[in-house]
Amino acid sequence: MTLTKKLAALGLWGLTTGLFAYALPAQARAAETAQVVKITASKFHFTPDRIVLAKGQPVTLQLTSADRVHGFMVRAFGIDTDIQPGKTTAITITPGKIGTYTTICDHYCGLGHGGMKMTIVVEEAVAKTSDAKVGGTPEMVSK
Amino acid sequence: MKNQIDRRSFLRIAGTSVGVGVLYEFAPFLERRPEAGEMNGYFKRTNGEAPASFTFAQFSDPHVGFQGPPNPLGTKAFESAVALLNQSPQRADFVLFTGDLTHDADSRDVHAKRMQLFRKIAGGLNTRAIHTVPGENDAALDGGVLYREHFGESHYSFDHKGVHFIALDNVSQGSPEVGPAQLAWLKADLARFPKTAPIIVFTHRPLFDLKPQWEWFTRDGDAVMNALAAYENVTVLYGHIHRHDVQQRGKVTHYAARSLIFAFNDPATNEDKKQLPFDRDDPFKDLGVRFVTESGAGDKAVALGVNDVALTKAEFSGLSGMQQMIKHNNSIGGSSSNDAD
After folding, report:
1. Is B142 on the interface with A (CB under 8 A)?
2. Beta partners for B321?
3. Do A111 and B174 count as a contact with CB atoms less than 8 A apart?
4. Is A45 an interface residue toward B (CB < 8 Å)?
């Protein structure tokens, strides 16, 4: 292998292993380290319909559709996208403010569309408890 | 430009915010004001129609086919609005419908029948023309195919007696957006006009963030308004929110019309969107039947905070016959999902 090829191979290895991650934009780095929350849209629900995120912890929302095109809009996080069936739409965010945020489907999907929404709760980050929680009432973590 | 037209008196609208629609009257500002000679000449040259005063009406969201708890009367409000307009001493040159002409249906055949019923009722209007734009209930599921079969193109423009009207479709793509192709068309359409041309845009959804979490916005509304930004006399008429609303955004005034089916609650004081309940003793409550009459500049009843438009309001009542009918008819047929936007 020539020196050029060796350097090229080294570069490829470095990129794939994160060696050069420092050169990536902050958003890309956040995406690499973010936890993943999977959300499925179908007429006329999001599953889960409630997630709990930790303030300041990056999280990647992996959005899929089980039937047709849906929307996923929550202005507080600057998210407004369509979810195409057969494709995963990934969005990485770092919630910066504690609160409860309503997400709606804003791609009309039929009678019942108006009620298609979910809730994103952002809580104070607590050590060892930064995993995104889904469904039900958020767990309270005692210090 | 040699003759600057005074915006304060340029575009004047009087008329009925009727809940059953809105009746607008254009004061003859162009035909009377000497400084408007340039605009008069422009419209006469471009379409052979000299500016003149005229009246038109805006109806919105009749949701033909809907029948549910917030309105068990179906098309009665729509039919009453038609009768009301026909009885008006001011004949409307045309009527604009700002979307959700029909309530969505799972079956294409049922939806087509609703569009035919809409055409039948609207055909009773004593007016020369009807111009429509779709709402999401009409066009969002099939990309506007069925709508176009019944009503023609979903975006277009026309001139009328010195005013340029632009119909924008912000529903047919499923998402609340106009889209790049229509935006390019809009820019090309506008390019023909001088910056002082009076322009009225009519569409279904608000072109600004009125209440995004209630889906009261248009994704690329800012791009639309940027395209219009250079024009000095722009008014936007829209529906979708099922309640009267007037907002001044920069130089542009945005008017929402009440619906002809039921009203939504106040977004300023409520977290969740809800249909207001039906009131048997006041069946058109919140749809409202309210005349707006012009009473001249400086009227303190005008609370629009704008320079170009003057509206005043006066209550109207005359629904006793309808109330009697309601009280004596407890079983009105028909059914539909009560999910409506």
Report:
1. no
2. none
3. no
4. no
Nearest residue to A116 via CA among A139, A83, A94, A88: A83
Q: How far apart are the C-alpha atoms of B89 and A46, rounded to whole Å?
A: 52
pLDDT digits (tens, 9 = 90+) for B158-185: 998 888 999 999 999 999 999 999 999 9
How far apart are alpha carbons B299 and B23 in whole angstroms? 19
As a residue count, chain A comes to: 143
SS (H, E, C) A71-85: EEEEHHHCEEEEECC
| Contacts B219 to A, Cβ<8 Å | 80, 106
Residue B306 burial by CB count (10 A; 0-12/13-18/19+): exposed, middle or buried?
buried
Pick A112's closest partner by Cβ from B105, B176, B339. B339
Closest CA to B10 of B218, B226, B196: B196
- The pTM is what? 0.78
- Asked if residues A37 and A49 have their Cβ atoms less than 8 Å apart, the reply is no
User: Does B13 or B324 have the greater pLDDT score?
Assistant: B13
Contacts of B97 (CB under 8 A, 6+ apart): B58, B59, B60, B62, B122, B130, B131, B132, B133
Asked if B341 reaches chain A (Cβ–Cβ under 8 Å), the answer is yes
**Residues of chain A positioned with their CB less than 8 A from the CB of B104:** 110-111
B215 close contact with A: CB closer than 8 A: yes
Instruction: Name the residue in chain B with its Cα closest to that of A73.
Output: B213
Quick: pLDDT tens for B39-75.
556 666 665 566 667 778 888 999 999 988 888 888 9
For CA atoms B237, B240, B243, B248, the dihedral sign is negative
- pLDDT digit string, tens, across residues B242-285: 998 889 999 998 988 888 999 899 999 999 999 988 887 777 76
Q: Which two tokens stand for residue B284?
A: 């058109």
- Answer whether A112 sits within 8 Å of B337, measured CB to CB: yes
pLDDT over 90 for what percent of chain B? 46
- Alpha helix ranges (H) inside B92-140: 108-122, 136-139
Among the partner-chain residues A69, A104, A111, the one whose CB lies closest to the CB of B215 is: A104
CA–CA separation, B95 and B170 (whole Å): 20
Instruction: Return the structure tokens found at B220.
Output: 């690329």
Distance from CA of A36 to the nearest CA of B (A): 24
Question: What span, in angstroms and rounded, lies between the C-alpha atoms of B334 and B341?
Answer: 19
Answer yes or no: do A114 and B273 touch at CB < 8 A: yes
* Measured distance CA(B154)–CA(B140) in Å, rounded: 12
